[in-house]
Structure prediction request, 128 residues.
Amino acid sequence: MDPSFIQAVVAPCFLLAGLSHLFQPHQWIRFFEVVRHTQIADLIIPLYTLPIGLVLIVGHNIWVWDWPVFLTIAGWLMTIKSSLYLVAPGFADWVLARNIAKSPRGYQIAGLVMTFFGGVLTWQVWSR
Prediction:
């Protein structure tokens, strides 16, 4: 699959998710509180992050020092995190119980990073 196609699809997802984290951190806190209280966060979170991570690894595994390497790194990190959640019971709950998952500022910082990289990568691929 063409890496620029993967970038054209995934980069706007990072941009929009980043903006959501930036402007609605309390909604994300509430979302992950609900997920945590299901007591199956180890299964729920990888349902979303593992497929995207694997698509990025398989279709966008580019290790060149340029903006798109962000997607490659993100893909590997999502796949590793999802794998840990699936094979280490309680790990997702432990992560969600930490203060960073309860802090609006933490979500806004993550949102700023995702918005920046998602914006640059979306602009790059869509302006061709």
In short: Residues 104-126 form the longest helix (23 residues). The chain is about 80% helix and 0% strand. Residues 3-126 form one domain.
